[in-house]
Structure formats: structure tokens, C-alpha cells
Design brief:
Length: 174
């Protein structure tokens, strides 16, 4: 199982660009749809837990998954599998881009990468939204929290999670 976890997260790390949020779609596909290690509901719970714990979300999910299936050593190798491709790719890209930047202007290349990453993040957000906002109560909580975020631009994520839980409690009491 340890080797399997390493290879799953190595593949995820190799094909996900732009940070943890852009990797969520790939992580979900691998863990829920392809290998069927967890259910969609378990994945959403992992995302929630990974979001409120310190560190990058994809690394938190890799560690959580590894520990769940193969204790500490599984968490270590799942996390290593996730970060190793990035390290190797960065070394290769830095070498290549350093060479190319001496000959060409790469601004358009960097802009196109930003657009691709934005699409991946938007799609991951859409997946989480469509599986979380499922009834009138969750829509009310979602809109309320969205307003709080837009009104108070800098707000700690734990406050948002707390307010979401409080909103759910209040709605259940009504």
C-alpha cells in the first residue's frame, strides 16, 4: 500500500500545476474515481480538514491519506510522492528557462500559464461548490459567508469555517 500511495501521489504531483487548489480535481479523480480509495464525501471531509490545518492543502491531503491507509510511513511516502515531481520539474525548468530567457522574452508564456492555472482552480471550486451547496439551507449559508468575505476582505479562514458551522447550527434550530 505504501508504494501504491507513493505512485498515486507521484502521478498527482507530476500532473498538477499551480499549487494545492489546482491539484484538487486530480486528487479527487485519483482517490475517488480511479482507485476508489475513498468516497466523495470522505474527500470533501479531507478537503475541509486540510483547509483548516496549517500548510498547503494538497500536501495535507496527501499526508492525511497516507496516514489513513498506512500510518506515519504511509503519510511520509504519500507526501514525498506529491512533492518529488515538483522538485525535479523545477530543477529542469529553471535550467531550461534560464537558458531560454537569455535568447527570448518569456512574458507571454508566463501569462498563458496563469490562465491555465486559473481555470484549474475555478473548476476545483465548482466541484466543491456543487457537492457542498445542495439545499436551501446551504445556499443561505454560502451566500452569507460570501458576503462576509466580500465586505471584510481579509478574514481568517478559521473564522469562515466557524461562521459556517454556526450558521448551520442556527438554521437547524429554526
Amino acid at each position: 500500500m505504501i508504494i501504491k500511495l507513493f505512485l498515486i501521489f507521484f502521478k498527482i504531483g507530476f500532473f498538477s500545476y499551480g499549487g494545492g487548489w489546482s491539484a484538487l480535481t486530480i486528487i479527487k479523480d485519483e482517490l475517488v474515481n480511479i482507485y476508489k480509495l475513498i468516497t466523495l464525501n470522505e474527500f470533501l471531509n479531507m478537503v475541509s480538514i486540510a483547509e483548516i490545518t496549517p500548510g498547503p492543502i494538497s500536501i495535507n491531503i496527501a499526508t492525511y491519506t497516507g496516514v489513513k491507509f498506512a500510518s506515519f510511513i504511509g503519510g511520509f511516502f504519500a507526501t514525498l510522492g506529491l512533492i518529488l515531481p515538483g522538485i525535479l520539474i523545477l530543477i529542469l525548468l529553471e535550467t531550461l528557462l534560464n537558458f531560454l530567457s537569455k535568447k527570448y522574452d518569456l512574458k507571454k508564456f508566463y501569462k498563458s500559464l496563469k490562465v491555465g492555472v486559473a481555470v484549474l482552480v475555478l473548476f476545483a471550486t465548482f466541484l466543491i461548490f456543487t457537492s457542498s451547496v445542495i439545499d436551501l439551507k446551504s445556499i443561505i449559508i454560502f451566500i452569507s459567508l460570501l458576503l462576509v468575505i466580500f465586505i471584510k476582505k481579509e478574514i481568517h479562514p478559521l473564522i469562515i469555517v466557524f461562521l459556517g458551522g454556526l450558521g448551520l447550527l442556527l438554521i437547524k434550530m429554526i
